[in-house]
Write a structure and sequence with these properties.
Elements: H1 11-19, H2 23-27, E1 30-39, E2 49-52, H3 53-65, E3 70-79, E4 82-90, E5 96-106, E6 109-119
Length: 121
């Protein structure tokens, strides 16, 4: 008796969205009820920024990927219903950002996304 695998996570859409500055491609990867938790210098672990649902996530993605900066998907590992990836970014003035993400999937769509980011100061 075999087991049925769920829908596969679209890592190429992830790469296209990140490297092509395409928030719509990225948003297509999220479930309607997804939640994103962001931890960085301004939103520390005891008080993270939390985005609920595709609408709030879309606002953040549209802001980030409309900025004048480069984005590169460095590494991406998919194991079952979990995805981990790193993204490096650079502003024109040379300021760099490094982000690390851990994602949980349901039916091939992102339902939980924890993002840790650090940037040059």
């Amino acid at each position: 008796m075999g087991t049925m695998a769920g829908p596969a996570f679209d890592t190429e859409a992830l790469r296209r969205g990140i490297e092509g500055h395409n928030a719509a491609d990225l948003l297509s990867l999220y479930a309607d009820d997804a939640e994103m938790t962001i931890v960085d210098r301004n939103t520390q672990p005891s008080h993270p920024m939390i985005k609920h649902g595709r609408g709030e996530i879309a606002e953040m993605l549209n802001d980030v990927y409309s900025r004048d900066m480069t984005h590169k998907l460095e590494e991406c590992v998919v194991q079952g219903d979990h995805v981990a990836f790193t993204e490096s970014c650079q502003y024109p003035d040379g300021v760099r950002v490094l982000a690390s993400s851990m994602i949980s999937l349901r039916d091939g769509k992102i339902v939980e996304h924890t993002l840790l980011q650090a940037w040059d100061e």
